[in-house]
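Researcher: I'd like a structural prediction for the single chain below. Treat it as a standalone chain; there are no partners to consider.
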Amino acid sequence: MTAIVLYRVMSKFQLVLGIICVTNVWGQAPNGPVVSPRGVINAFTQAPAPTTVASGGLIWIKGLNLGPVDTVTATDTPWPTSIGDPAIQVMINNRLAPIYSASPSKIVAQVPYEVTNGQVTLIVKRGDVQSRPVRFNVVNIFSSVKTADDAGYGAADMSTSGNTILMRASGLGPVTPNVPTGTAGPKDTLAAPRGAARALVGGALADVRVTASTDRVGEFDVAVDLPATALPGDVITLQIANNTANRTLYQRISEPSVSYLAIPTGTPDLRGFTSSDLRPGYLGLAAARADDGCYPSFVADVANKIWNKIDSCLTTANRNQASPFTAANEGNALAAFVGPPAADASTGVSNKLALYNPAKLAMSVDLPATAALIGSAGRGEFSVIIGGTPPSAKTLDPETGELKDGGAVVIGGAGGGGFGGGGFGGGGGAGGIPVALLTAVIDLGDGIKETIATPFAFAAGTYGVLVADNAEKPTKAKLAIVDATGKVQATRDFPSGYVPLIPAVQPAAPGGGGGPGGGGIPGLPGGIVNPLARFRAVAVLDATSRSYVVISGTTDGSAHGFVSFPVGQGIAKVQPLPEKTFFAVCAAQLRVFQLDLSRRIALSTASSSEIAIKNPCPAQGFATFDWNTQEAAVVTLPGSGSFNATGNNESELNDYVYGANVATANRSDTLYVFDGVTNSSFRFDLPPDVQTFTNLSSILQLNAVVGLATNRVNGDAGIVYFDLELASSRLMPTPEGFATVTIASVFPDTRKLIARGTKANNAGTNYLIYDLVTGDLRIIDNPPGVAFVGTVPAQAPAGGPGTPGAVQTPVLQNFNAKSNTIEAVTYGADRKQTGLMLVRVQ
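Model: Treating it as a single chain, here is the predicted structure.
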């Protein structure tokens, strides 16, 4: 057995995993080039692997022995596809890539325009020796703006000419005229992206000109004329053909700034709060909806200290909606229907809407017919659904009020600063599957007629459908190949003794119908069942290997394994898990995690095969299935540890799968991590003076996980930061004078974590800004007369808990990562609303 030595080399936000091994393990000489499995990143965004780059975009390749001690650099254009001695070459999907520079630890190269979209493989050759392949993703357009100091966040790398800022970008897609791979743009006829360019600074539209750089390969020169409202610290948004680049700042600011606007006396209690998606502090506010369907409404511009009461009636179709306003995604405007609402809301709400734009007067727009819904159409525009048979969609330009035919509605997505992780769910989607197959009864005889997984496209004109004799506990199952009507064309048998595993069902909430766990479609009456809810078998289709894997077990429960069906000809094969190792079927959802860099899937494993809902659901390791080799492997946790596979205790982040144990009720003291690239696991120890943690959330851009550090009550110790790349943890403590903190959001483009601190005895709250790079903390002072921000902590009414008439103060705040701001309603010590607060985060 050959030993493998693993070691890690740290850079500012990157982990270079160097692997030194012998030739018969890696197929390369000890002194050959080694590319870290996570070593290919977008040169401008610096986002961690698995990275995404546009064809024609620039990449950094990190590793060991990639080039000579003295860096070699291309001296002219076009860039060479071979550089140095011995010759260094980069192959992307077997196509030579132009190289700018090569050193022992880094190569800078361009992705050829000719590389097709999708997951690609990269190999570095040095002389006669080549590295192992690594993977990254290539798309047609992936707009990327260069940041100062190549940090990947913060201020843009820019220069200034008068009122114009000049930035550098890459990955802006095809250009006219064409620019060959490895060359800079032409100087006689400037090349420009084919996709329309759009720019905003601080949410204000700005004139923008984009051309291919005439002296830098793979780059674009972006000239933005600053709007009159631009301020240092404003976020720059650049879009090419609806593709939004990484957000950067117009200059840095050294300190957060706070603006405050007092709410006029006599204003009713606010219950609804809608923020402009990009314009800081531009808010639509509403009090409780009246019996006539109208909301007392207001529009405020906090930075400019403007408060406007809306005299007209604003309304919505949904009487339970807190605010009548809709924000335009990637824009600055707000829109609302003008009421009172139509008597029959099923046919629409109103034939008129109001537009509110921070740079213009309010505008009224007459619609061609009664409309039912306002949504966002992207690029700062709205989409309006007009009633009729069939309904139609209109796109609304908030700058002009012009209505145009067409437009797709995006519900939600505007504002906010979410930062949670996520997993890869099993079963696939129903996209492109004939509706008839979702409800068809496919009878294969012998009692096998229950469809248990979402159908999938099998081959031209045919579909694969998992069918069993029982949807709850199958004893027999087959894969049926059917046509679009459900007519059976062929069947495939499961390996002897194996059937699909069916996870247990979470008990339905009282009331059934569309309630949680009831299997209904939200908003539909009870009894109307979502046809996908009955598909509970867990299966995954891989288009590259043309295989369909079903998570399976033996009928007697003695063994679990991956059953793989070839899409095409061939028989199913099983890759069993080791003896007494099973998939963790004690959770309500058997989660499948897709590991892009290693082309594997992973599931948590347990020591019991009992299918029953448990919390905690103890898992002791991970089982993986390799799409390339069609083989399974199991990795156990260090020290015979276990984690809870229920809910968000288990999640995935950039091919790291993590899970927390249960030390006490809903709290953990150990975080376990499975590295899907190295196929190994490790554990985190908590920082000193922290007993447990809870409420985990992931930060995609940093390969990090954060949670509330807890001793007696949640958040009393602060926030614990788990760095998955460095396998280290640190504490961001609760500041003196505060009893607890809660995590509100993360602003990845400035590397800030936003929290709210609560003082002892609920005497007041403040916003806290933790710097995720330096660990520094800024406590945001409340304006005079303000004790609470965003909401008022719950307080038992005078008559005790449950007293009739007690009203909970709503949460009226927004943490907007797109504008790098916090917006909130403020309250005094008497718990009454006082004003509006805007924090511009540095």
